[in-house]
Amino acid sequence: DTEVTQTPKHLVMGMTNKKSLKCEQHMGHRAMYWYKQKAKKPPELMFVYSYEKLSINESVPSRFSPECPNSSLLNLHLHALQPEDSALYLCASSQPARRQGIEQFFGPGTRLTVL
Amino acid sequence: QKEVEQDPGPLSVPEGAIVSLNCTYSNSAFQYFMWYRQYSRKGPELLMYTYSSGNKEDGRFTAQVDKSSKYISLFIRDSQPSDSATYLCAMSAFTGNQFYFGTGTSLTVIP
Question: Which residue among A51, B37, B58, B95 has the highest number of C-beta atoms inside a 10 angstrom radius?
Fold first, then answer.
């Protein structure tokens, strides 16, 4: 199984809502990533988990809170977001690396709209 | 100056054409060069990666790296409508190090 799954596919939320994005992989990868991608822009790294521990936080605002409950699951908890946070949120996984593994497998993303 | 430069296109070609996609970079420390394909509203998919200079071929796709010119290319032979997507290059100095993505080139292959 070389698939990374993400739920939900689409999410619309208000600025006062709390929601969570979920990512799952069963490739035995021990590195998992959250990226944010705006339209016509490349993905921007947000967080890296390596062996279920947060290893990289790219100065992401605290309204984004990642969680890695086990080696297959990665969550991104959202609270008090701003309209400019609307984007495609991508999860990826790879074999562990110092920062970003070369062969990353991406999920299809969650398209988030903040009203 | 950006670390990685990529012409955003859009690029439109007839079916069966040879497509050339390119990126230039400024950091001579880059050793790993990746090409991702991203369909509309989907996540990126790694097509291939090369280490250092040279060519690598996989089916209709060929990746070339010219480190002396700091220039990489992806060639698509016998292009198909299913190749219509955005192609992102990415680079890294060391395995496991920070990625630098290009902005992506939008390709449309017309039947």
Answer: B37
Pairing of strands A53-57, A64-70: unpaired
pLDDT digits (tens, 9 = 90+) for B84-93: 999 999 998 8
Interface test mutation site (partner A, options B91, B99, B103, max chain A beta carbons within 10 A): B99
Instruction: Judge whether B97 is closer than 8 Å to chain A, CB to CB.
Output: yes
Cα A1 to Cα A4, A18, A24, A29, A70, distances in angstroms:
9, 31, 12, 12, 18
Cβ within 8 Å of residue A61, ≥6 positions away: none
The helix/strand/coil state of A75 is: strand
The pLDDT tens digits for A24-64 are: 999 999 999 999 999 988 999 999 999 999 998 989 999 99
- Residue A100 pLDDT > 80, yes or no? no
Query: B39 is written with which tokens?
Result: 């369909």
Helix (H, G, I), strand (E, B) or coil at B104: coil
